Amino acid sequence: MKISLKAPAKINWFLSVLNKRADGYHNIISPMQCVDLFDTLSFEEAEELHVLSDLDIPAEMNLVYKAAALLKKVSLHKSGATIELKKISRLLQGSVEAAATRHILSSASTGCGG
Fold it and tell me: How much is the pLDDT for 15?
């Protein structure tokens, strides 16, 4: 079974880095606005984990791949998923798609998180 969803684009109007936290991350202020653009993610169960996209980066650098691989590792799920990413908007930098990937794979039986 194939599941598809739209990942909405957003604009961060500015980024203000505040203090560094004890965990090494920083607190930030970054007002966002949603826009009417979407990338599409499709998920289908597979034996291995594969991410197909038009991005010119290695799969291991893709946040969608990283989210799915980490979820597979911590869930100890044996199978994988084929994830197809169709980029419409270059406004999306990966975090929205990675969040959508985690949501789908952890809540559905489509692959490494189900």
Answer: 92
| Strand partners for 10 | 34
Cα–Cα distance measured from residue 10 to residue 111, given in angstroms and rounded to the nearest whole number: 28
- CA quadruple 59, 76, 96, 32: dihedral, nearest 10: -130
Residue 73 burial (CB count, 10 A): 10
Q: What is the mean pLDDT of each run of 10 residues along the chain (114 residues)?
A: 84 92 95 86 89 83 85 78 82 69 64 43
Structure confidence at residue 37 (pLDDT): 85
* C-beta separation of 88 from 35 below 8 A: no
Query: Model pTM?
Result: 0.69
DSSP the chain: -EEEEEEEEEEE---EEEEEPTTS-EEEE--EEEEEEEEEEEEEEESS-EEEES-SS-GGG-HHHHHHHHHHHHHT-S-EEEEEEE---TT--SHHHHHHHHHHHHHSSSSTT-
